Task: inverse folding
């Protein structure tokens, strides 16, 4: 059961008439409660005009038998307040527990994950003194759709789903964000040299939407060399827009090389709701020792204050936080002899920030947040295009077969050819093994039969596929799934077998 507790934060006598913005707060697991208490203490001292509804999520809820990690009443609070400040949680291993973070992002349609990373040289030790970038990570799609199946004894599968609306929204968000915050360049990271359909669509949409922003410099990097460049020369980047998994990994790398994963916050933005958090996890080994750096969650809370139109409070807290870093008051993760002055715990760090409310940094750049709420992305409307001309050209049938000789499989399957379709190619893990292929190619028990119209270039029908499957079944072929081979507006929209 979740507890709903209403706490008024920051109601001082001078602001008694101001409307308090309701927000939902979850203290999470591990170091979560400590860093949340520290963050709320700072928000309260800075007179944030918020009213808190506390909910319980995470480990306790999971272990009570709720595999989603969140109770029904908690969803009601989130849908009512539409603003969620969340500490990290622990997802128990195994047992069918679904990640609450992924669930929350998807259930509430939080499609944009905004992760700014800045280095605070020379006050926080880093190899990259000049670094000020924002990773705009797609938050709902990609391999995080969580559609996984075991298909054969030896092969499991995770579906990577990328949609045009998903790409358009996140890419437009990145360009609008760059425009609003006067950033000069947007870089797109994909692996479209390999994943030509999925990552290819993301890259294509980046080029299409980028054309509407000629004033912003734009570039595309293949993710592998792009990640190497980011780790080596982060100052070369400004705004980075990328797919879910790449963004997840890269934002941790970026935060760590800036000084610590404990320094970075993240905003998860959707059309209706928003969630704010630290990028790091619940660090259970550090829990309960007054050790953790609350800065990541505090940075999330500052993004939240800007989001709910309290940029004045956000500015005051951020400047006090910068002054604290500058004064060398550091938690263990950023403490360095010769750089830091005082090693403090979570509570003392929060108190040091509170003591500096109203002060500004003298060396680090003072911030002044925009005084209007940042509603970038909340009014994007997806306009569905006219349907494309879709032609069915063939079908890939995945089969579970424990033999080792592809010609033997071809001999069996060729008996299932009907008047319209015939077997054209067999591949194993994407590599062609019949009619050509190398004996050196290692084969598992998961085979793809590529079947197309007998006459090259002819279309086929669903009925032809059903007939083919029925014949295969009669021959005892264990098919696992099918994928249609379609041509869209005259363009073949499937990948070739490797070596084809
Ligand atoms: P983690 O980010 O929790 O911690 C990794 C290490 O980073 C810690 O051992 C610690 O040395 C350091 N660290 C992290 N945050 C810190 C902070 N605030 N101050 C100082 N040092 C800090 O990663 P993990 O150990 O892989 O994951 C632990 C748990 O967190 C797992 O159950 C995982 O599922 C969960 N997780 C939750 C979230 C979330 O709730 N958003 C995100 C990531 C991981």
Result:
């Amino acid at each position: 059961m979740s507890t709903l507790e209403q706490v008024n934060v920051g109601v001082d006598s001078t602001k008694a008439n101001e409307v308090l913005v309701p927000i939902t707060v979850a203290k999470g697991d591990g170091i979560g409660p400590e860093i949340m208490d520290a963050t709320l203490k700072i928000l309260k001292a800075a007179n944030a005009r918020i009213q808190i509804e506390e909910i319980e999520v995470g480990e306790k809820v999971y272990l009570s038998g709720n595999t989603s990690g969140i109770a029904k009443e908690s969803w009601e609070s989130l849908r009512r307040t539409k603003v969620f400040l969340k500490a990290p949680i622990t997802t128990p291993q195994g047992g069918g527990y679904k990640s609450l973070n992924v669930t929350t992002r998807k259930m509430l349609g939080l499609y944009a994950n905004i992760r700014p990373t800045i280095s605070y040289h020379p006050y926080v030790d880093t190899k990259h003194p000049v670094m000020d970038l924002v990773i705009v990570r797609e938050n709902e799609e990609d391999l995080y759709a969580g559609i996984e199946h075991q298909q054969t004894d030896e092969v499991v599968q995770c579906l990577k789903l990328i949609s045009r609306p998903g790409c358009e929204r996140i890419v437009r968000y990145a360009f609008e964000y760059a425009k609003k915050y006067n950033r000069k360049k947007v870089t797109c990271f994909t692996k479209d040299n390999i994943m030509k359909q999925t990552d290819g669509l993301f890259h294509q949409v980046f080029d299409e939407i980028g054309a509407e922003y000629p004033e912003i410099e734009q570039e595309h990097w293949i993710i592998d060399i792009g990640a190497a460049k980011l780790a080596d020369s982060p100052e070369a980047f400004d705004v980075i827009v990328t797919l879910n998994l790449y963004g997840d990994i890269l934002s941790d790398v970026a935060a760590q090389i800036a000084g610590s994963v404990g320094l970075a916050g993240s905003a998860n933005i959707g059309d209706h709701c928003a969630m704010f958090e630290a990028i790091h996890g619940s660090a259970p080994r550090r829990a309960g020792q007054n050790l953790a750096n609350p800065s990541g969650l505090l940075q999330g809370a500052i993004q939240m204050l800007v989001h709910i139109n309290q940029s004045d409070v956000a500015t005051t807290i951020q400047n006090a936080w910068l002054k604290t870093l500058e004064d060398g008051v550091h938690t263990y993760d950023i403490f360095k002899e010769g750089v830091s002055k005082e090693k403090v715990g979570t509570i003392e760090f929060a108190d040091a920030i509170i003591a500096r409310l109203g002060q500004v940094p003298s060396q680090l750049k003072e911030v002044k947040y925009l005084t209007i709420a940042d509603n970038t992305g909340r009014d994007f409307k997806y306009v569905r295009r006219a349907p494309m001309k879709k032609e069915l050209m063939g079908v890939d049938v995945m089969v579970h077969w424990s033999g080792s000789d592809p010609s033997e499989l071809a001999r069996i399957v060729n008996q299932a050819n009907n008047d319209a379709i015939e077997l054209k190619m067999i591949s194993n893990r994407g590599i062609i093994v019949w009619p050509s292929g190398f004996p050196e190619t290692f084969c598992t028990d998961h085979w793809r039969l590529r079947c197309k119209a007998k006459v090259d270039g002819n279309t086929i029908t669903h009925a032809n596929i059903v007939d083919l499957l029925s014949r295969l079944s009669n021959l005892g072929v264990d098919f696992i799934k099918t994928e249609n081979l379609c041509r869209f507006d005259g363009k073949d929209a499937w990948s070739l077998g490797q070596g084809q």
